[in-house]
Amino acid sequence: MDKDLLYRYFDGTATPEEGKEVKRWMEASADNRKAFFRERRLFDALLMNADMASEEERRHPFLRGFQGWECLKIAVVLLVGVCLHQAYLMLADCRTETCTTVRVPAGQRTHITLPDGTGVWLNARSEMSYSTSFNQNHREVSLRGEAFFEVAKNEGLPFVVRTSTFGVEATGTQFNVEAYPGRQHFEAALMEGGIHVYRLDRPEQNVRLAPLQKVYWENGRLKVAALDNLDDYRWRDGLICFRNETFSHIMQQFQKSFGIRIQIHNKEVMKYTYTGKFRMNDGVDYALRVLQRDIRFLYRKNDEKEIIDIY
Fold first, then answer.
1. Does residue 218 register a pLDDT over 70?
2. Rounded distance, CA 31 to CA 39, Å?
3. Contacts 24+ apart (CB under 8 A), 39-42
4. Which residue has the higher pLDDT, 278 or 229?
5. Dist CA 215 CA 168 (whole Å)
6. Beta bridge mates, 144
7. Which is more confident, 77 or 208?
8. Do 179 and 165 contact (CB within 8 A), yes or no?
9. Rounded to whole angstroms, what are the CA distances from 264 to 6, 17, 138, 163, 197?
């Protein structure tokens, strides 16, 4: 697969025909799929480093010259591995053990492979930690935010995701967990296999999910429902998807993805629902301008305070 085409696809500038070509190539084999996600991670790293380079350019005006900027771009490419490590992987003390902590900034997502072979996609503004003894006598991670897990099968060593309130246990499966700090919302959605979900402080409150079910916390109880919209989990592709969702719900998703607080003063917008998709890379301003085509409202953005007011 031509890398220029892949990168246009990641950037959202590929034509619909080119997009179909990329998807056909990716789905043709497991090796192609691995290559696709490998290039996706490299693309995300380049995006992050481009942001870092832009900041460096603002701090050092001499870089605006062609020669300085070209040198900086070359340095960014050469140091992708180092920068990705510095941007995502940080050592932290996890109570009694040294842990690896992966943090993802607003508007981004990343993929990592744990020592046992488990693949993890982390969504924007998420953080996951695991100890250096992971996969020796336990497989446990701590999550703040949202992640999609493709768990390597090991019947003798269950895989556990701990949030601030809940535990999710599996041996080998695919599932999504959403548990952002500061929000009452918790949800675990199962695509394949089976998971056991329980409250950490009251293990008697627990449920077991079958494929295409989800569990969420509401009114002091764990409730199970059918999983009928997999588009909700396409954030792994850099997409924010909606199907007949309220304006308020969409703004909540923007807050989660872009790390900005949105205050709605125009109550008229609450009566509308919306179906569509947005790319995270396009940013919150672009998404709001698209919504303005169908819903009449104005907005004011305060970058310093990271607040958007809807009027």
1. yes
2. 12
3. 39/3, 39/6, 39/7, 39/10, 40/10, 40/111, 41/84, 41/110, 41/111, 42/80
4. 278
5. 11
6. 127
7. 208
8. yes
9. 38, 39, 45, 30, 34
**Tokens read off for 285:** 């301003």
Q: What is the pLDDT of residue 120?
A: 96
Phi, psi of 8 (to 5 degrees): -65, -35
Tokens linked to 16: 């619909």
**Residue 87: which pLDDT band, with cuts at 50, 70 and 90?**
very low
Give the confidence band of 46 by pLDDT, cuts at 50, 70, 90: low
Per-residue pLDDT for 90 more than 50? no
Residue reference for tokens 């269950």: 158
- Please name which of 91, 128, 92, 88 lies closest in space to residue 108, comparing C-alpha atoms: 88
**Count of C-beta atoms within a 10 Å radius of residue 206:** 15
pTM assigned to the model: 0.65
- CA contacts within 13 A on the Cβ side of 271: 5
Alpha helices in the chain (DSSP H): 3-11, 16-27, 30-59, 66-78, 80-88, 247-258, 283-292
Task: Name 283's Cβ contacts closer than 8 Å, sequence gap at least 6.
Answer: 107, 258
Token digits for 89?
A: 């992987």
Length of the chain: 311
Question: Does residue 75 contact residue 81 with C-beta atoms inside 8 Å?
Answer: no
